[in-house]
């Protein structure tokens, strides 16, 4: 058995400045433990000019270092060291007649020795550069537009169109490295129903943290989708991605290679101490899933206990026949039906 030693050293510095340099006792942004930023409440603008002049810039500097060490290196266990520096600048406008906009620029620079640490074997540190870009251009840097969207708010419902962070049970920004995971599409976020939060998302593209271009939500690139080197890194190459859903396999089966991700997310707290969560997603002609969760808070003296129950079920809408039951290309023997994702 291999023993592994790992070290992760993050450093984050957040800066925020108003266009008008307004003084306030409230912080303009705060950072949650999962890397998600909480921004100061937007101001209301009285003109199109104030939509921008009353907006805020939010800056952030980051440094990450990842070190993995094994007792003995072999084909699947490789000692690695990679560091990186990153920065972001996000502009969040004021709100004018219900409209607002967000634009976010993100950059990252990785530092590692390719002769000792092959880019293809990098683990958590791989998100500090684009492996696909490095294989084709040698670049260890990334510069992307991570957010670019327009929002419209009416009552307690907001519609957002463009590239954005989408936080639901099934979609996360995972902003723990340099660049967040983002989606291109339409999101409706509503709290109009009492004690209920609803979110509906129609997402046409995804851009993983280590990509400079948006890509398909549920497709693995191959030699028929691009003529570039390392085509398997060109589309969705996340570790949890089903490796059998390649461009060629989907095409041969008559399935879409650019299918959208449709997500419905809901939370309700109408019953005292009970929180009900529901979430579902559909990738048309391929896959769908539903999740229901109940959490009940039991107040006690000085503390509380919250037991929870979660149920998840997945439905195969055609993806199993294309890529098989296993998310890898091996290990099908343990399944009742090796060609079903139910």
Automatic annotation (TrEMBL):
Matching Pfam families: OprD (PF03573)
Species per Swiss-Prot/TrEMBL record: Sulfurimonas autotrophica
Record's protein name: Outer membrane porin, OprD family
PANTHER family tied to this protein: CHITOPORIN (PTHR34596:SF2)
Keyword Transport: yes
UniProt GO molecular function: porin activity
Tagged with keyword Transport: yes
Family: Belongs to the outer membrane porin (Opr) (TC 1.B.25) family.
UniProtKB keywords: Signal, Transport
A GO cellular component annotation in the UniProt record: membrane
């Amino acid at each position: 058995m291999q023993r592994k030693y790992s070290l992760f050293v993050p450093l984050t510095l957040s800066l925020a400045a108003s266009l008008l340099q307004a003084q306030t006792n409230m912080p303009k942004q705060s950072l949650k433990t999962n890397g998600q930023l909480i921004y100061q409440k937007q101001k209301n603008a009285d003109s199109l000019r104030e939509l921008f002049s009353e907006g805020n810039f939010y800056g952030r500097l980051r440094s990450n270092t990842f070190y993995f060490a094994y007792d003995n290196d072999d084909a699947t266990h490789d000692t690695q060291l990679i560091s990186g520096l990153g920065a972001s600048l996000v502009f969040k406008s004021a709100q004018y007649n219900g409209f607002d906009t967000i634009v976010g620029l993100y950059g990252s620079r990785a530092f590692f020795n390719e002769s000792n640490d092959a880019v293809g074997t990098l683990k958590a540190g791989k998100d500090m550069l684009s492996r696909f870009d490095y294989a084709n251009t040698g670049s260890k840097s990334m510069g992307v537009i991570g957010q670019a969207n327009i929002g419209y708010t009416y009552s307690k419902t907001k519609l957002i169109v463009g590239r954005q962070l989408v936080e639901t049970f099934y979609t996360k920004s995972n902003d723990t490295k340099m660049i967040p995971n983002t989606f291109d599409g339409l999101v409706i976020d509503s709290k109009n129903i009492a004690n209920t939060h609803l979110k509906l998302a129609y997402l046409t593209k995804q851009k993983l943290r280590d990509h400079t271009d948006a890509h398909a939500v549920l497709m693995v690139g191959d030699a028929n989708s691009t003529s570039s080197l390392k085509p398997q890194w060109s589309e969705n190459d996340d570790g949890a991605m089903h490796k059998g859903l390649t461009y060629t396999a989907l095409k041969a089966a008559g399935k879409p290679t650019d299918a959208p991700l449709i997500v419905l997310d809901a939370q309700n707290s109408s019953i005292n101490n009970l929180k009900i969560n529901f979430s579902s997603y559909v990738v048309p002609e391929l896959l769908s899933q539903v999740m229901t969760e109940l959490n009940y808070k039991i107040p006690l003296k000085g503390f509380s206990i919250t037991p929870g129950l979660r149920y998840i079920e997945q439905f195969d809408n055609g993806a199993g026949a294309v890529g098989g039951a296993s998310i890898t290309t091996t290990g099908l023997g343990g399944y009742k039906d090796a060609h079903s994702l139910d």
